[in-house]
Predict the 3D structure of the following.
Amino acid sequence: MQPTAVLFDMDGVVVDSERYWVDIEETRIYPAVVEGSVDAEETTGMNFREIYDYLDEHYETTVDKSAFVERYEEAARDLYGERVDLMDGFRGLVSDLRADDRRLALVSSSPPDWIDRVLDRFDVRAAFDEVVSAEEIDGPSKPDPGVYEYAAERVGVDPVDCVAVEDSEHGVQSASAAGMAVVGYRNRSGADLDLSAADAVADSPDDLRAILFE
């Protein structure tokens, strides 16, 4: 792939947060807010406020939305401030993509303050031409295509000339529905996600680099 623009998801692609979120959601958050068990794979890639709406529709919730949101906010402060690491090889990859005159964007379902924690902590804000949170758009987050359509507008590149790097089924669906090529990126979360709808699947940082420069 030699796309004009490369659009990176954040969680599970830029930072290794998904492996923490899966554990936090399944052991701390979901048991405290719903009756019955919830598999985190059902909600991976969704905006956390929309996760509550999903749980409220499909399960019996035991707390209101504000209490649910606060649980996520508390977990995020610890997670992004202390625990996550930048994905292996990420700095070198974006440096080489920029040297190859690609446009780069970060496209995340996370709220802007979570994104800012990551960008500032790892000093990677300058790596991206645009940073997009799904909370900026007037509509649903992933798997809806709206956030990726908006991101393409922001980078000034037609969606057909963009490739998205996504680690979740919802993210793959979102970018694909927006008309982009998609690379499914398998991270260390342990989640057995179905990325078969992606145009290519990378099992490692080296695989991802090879796909984006082939």
In short: The radius of gyration is 16 Å.
